C-alpha cells in the first residue's frame, strides 16, 4: 500500500510553520482513502496558513446540525505520518537533545488509527519510528547516546516493562523532584534496525501481558520512551532528556454494550485514565497551581515529560466511518487545548449530551453554528452483581481479618450497587453532568435530585463516596490480580530501600511487627471501639427508600428507626453501605455489615493519613520518620493525597504491605 503522504500534499501548508512552540498542541488526523471525502467530517481550514485554528465539523454534509470544534490543525487523508512528523515533531528533536522533554499522545476511539500514527506499518512508518531515525542520526553528530524503553499500562493502572521477558511491574518514586522508574528497562540503540527489532519485541510482549495477566482484558495504553544521554554509561549518569510516545487505549462509551468482550469495569477504568491525562493537560495548559499527576499511573509515568519546559502534542485520530466516540474525544481535546474550565470528569456518569460547540473568544476567526446533541438515555443498570463469598467464620478476630480477603466480593457488589444507583437516579437530562463538570456551571443541567434539599448530602460527598467505592474496587482487584498472576515480591520493594529512595526502617518494621502488638493511633483506637460497639449493638437501623431512595419531594431519607448507635455522624452519609433492608439471611446481614465496617476502617485510615501530624503518623505501623515526612510533603502538594488505599503505594508500600497493615488493624479490633 502506498504511503498516505501522497504528492497531492499542499506544499504551502507544509511550509507554513505551526504556532511557535505552544505548551500544548492539539491536532487531528483523519485516515481513509486519500481521494475520498469522508462524508461525516468536514474540515474548515483558514486561508491564511496554519497559524490559525482549524474547525472540524461532524455531521451529514447536508445537515444544518453540525457539531464543530477547534483544533490547532487537522491532517486529512492525503497528509500522512511523514507530514505530521515534519510539521509537528521534527522541531522537537533538537530541543530534546538539549534537555527539553516532549510527549506525543495519540487519542481516539477504538480502531481510529492511533497505532497507525504512533507505530506505523510496514508501508508507512509511524511518528515514533520517524523520530528515532532522526534521533539516531543527530545523536551521532552530537556525541549523544540513545536508549529506549517500552511499557504498557493496563486497565488496573499497573505499568509493565515490555523489553524484559519477565515483564516486571514498574514502580515509580520521586527522588529530588524527578520521577524514578524501578523495573523499566532501557536498552541502548544505535541503528534503526535495532530499534525496529525492539519495537516488535515490545508489541509481542504487550499481547502476552494481556493474555497472561488477564484473560478478559483487551485494552491498554502503550508507551515508548526515547532517553537521551550525553554519554551513556548507566541510567544514572549523563541524563539529558526524553521524548515520549503514547498510544492510548481507545475510548469507548461505557454505556454501550461491549462488542469486543471488554468488561464494564475495564472500560470505565480505561476511560478514567484517559480523563486523568486530559485533566493534567488541561491543568498544564491553564497554568493551574495544582496539576493532578497522581490521578493515574500513566500521568505519573509522564510527569517529567509533561511539566516545565516540556512540549506536548496530542493527535486526535478519526476513522473514516462515523464514530460518536471520536467526536467526543475531539470535543474534549479541543476544550483542553483552549483552556475551557473543567472540574472533574467521572466516567460512570457520562452523559449523552456531551457534544458542545466550542467558540472561545480567543478564536475569533471561527464563527461556528451552535449545536447540541439530543441526550441519550442512560444505559440500563448493570445487573452483574457478584455473589458474596459464603465462608463460615468461627472467631470475630478471624472475621475482622477476613474483611480484607473478602473485599473483592463485597466491594464489587457495593460498587455495582453504586453504579446502578447512580444510573437509576440520573434522569436523561441530568446526564449532562459530566459535560458541566468539564465546562463549568450551566443552566442546561438539572441538579442532581439526590442532593437537593439536603445539606448533609453534598454532591461532592456523594461523588466522593461513589468514587471511593470504585477506587476501593480498583485496589481490591489490583490486589487479587497481583496475587494470582503477578505477585509483586516484597523484597523488590525493599530493594528500592537500598537505593536510598524509600525507607527501609519503615518497611522492615512492618515485617518485624508481624506478630507483635500493634502501634495504633488514638484515632484508630477510637474507631475500633466505635466499630465494636456498632458491631454488637446496631439493629436493623437504617431505613432506606427502596426504589432510587429518593422520595417524591426530592428529599433523601436519612430516617433512623431504631435506637441510636455510637456511629459517628458521617456514617449516615454512607448509608448505602450499611443497607441491610434487602438482605435475606443472617449471613447476608452479617456480610453486609462486615463490608460496611471494612469501608469505615479504610475511610478512617485514609482520613488519618490526610490529617494527622507527624508524630501521630509515626504511631502507625509501617510509618517512620521518613515516610511521615514524605506524607506531609505530599499533603503540601495536594491537600488530600490519599483518596484510596492504592495511593499508599506513593509512599513506597506495596499492595501486599497495605493489605497487611489493614488486616492487622482489623484483627486488633477484637484482640
Ligand atoms: N492511515 C490508515 N490507512 C489505512 N488503514 C488504516 C489507517 N489507520 C488505521 N487503519 C486501519 O484501521 C484499523 C485500526 O487501526 P489502529 O490499530 O491503528 O487503530 P487503534 O486506534 O490503534 O485501535 P485500538 O483502539 O484498538 O488500539 C487497522 O486495521 C488499520 O490497518
Please identify which CATH superfamily of the largest domain we are dealing with.
Kinesin motor domain
Give the total of beta strands: 14
Radius of gyration, CA atoms, in whole angstroms? 26 Å
Helix content: 25-40%
User: What is the level 1 CATH name of the largest domain?
Assistant: Alpha Beta
SS-derived structural category: alpha/beta
Q: Give the oligomeric state.
A: single chain
Count of DSSP helices?
A: 20
From the N-terminal CA to the C-terminal CA, the straight-line distance is 71 Å
Query: What small ligands are held by the chains?
Result: adenosine-5'-triphosphate
Q: State the major sheet.
A: 9 strands, mixed
Could you say what the CATH topology of the largest domain is called? Answer: Kinesin
Question: Can you walk through the features of this model?
Answer:
It is a single chain. This protein has 671 residues and is α/β, with parallel strands linked by helices. The protein folds into two domains: 11-345, Kinesin, CATH 3.40.850.10; 396-668, no CATH class. It is built from 20 helices and 14 strands. It has helices at residues 11-15, 81-97, 114-118, 127-142, 192-213, 264-285, 297-306, 324-337, 396-402, 407-425, 433-439, 459-485, 490-498, 504-512, 522-537, 570-573, 586-611, 614-617, 625-637, 655-668; strands at residues 24-30, 41-44, 54-58, 67-71, 73-75, 102-108, 145-154, 159-161, 171-175, 178-182, 187-188, 220-229, 239-247, 311-318. Strands 1, 5, 6, 7, 8, 11, 12, 13 and 14 form a nine-stranded mixed β-sheet that branches. A three-stranded antiparallel β-sheet has the order 2-3-4. A hairpin with a 2-residue loop joins strand 9 and strand 10 (178-182). Helix 6 runs parallel beside helix 7 (297-306), helix 10 (407-425) packs antiparallel against helix 12 and helix 15 (522-537) runs antiparallel to helix 17. The longest helix is centred in the C-terminal third of the chain and has 27 residues, at 459-485. It starts with 10 loop residues before the first helix and ends with a helix. Mean pLDDT is 65; it is low at 1-16, 341-521 and 532-580. The structure holds adenosine-5'-triphosphate.
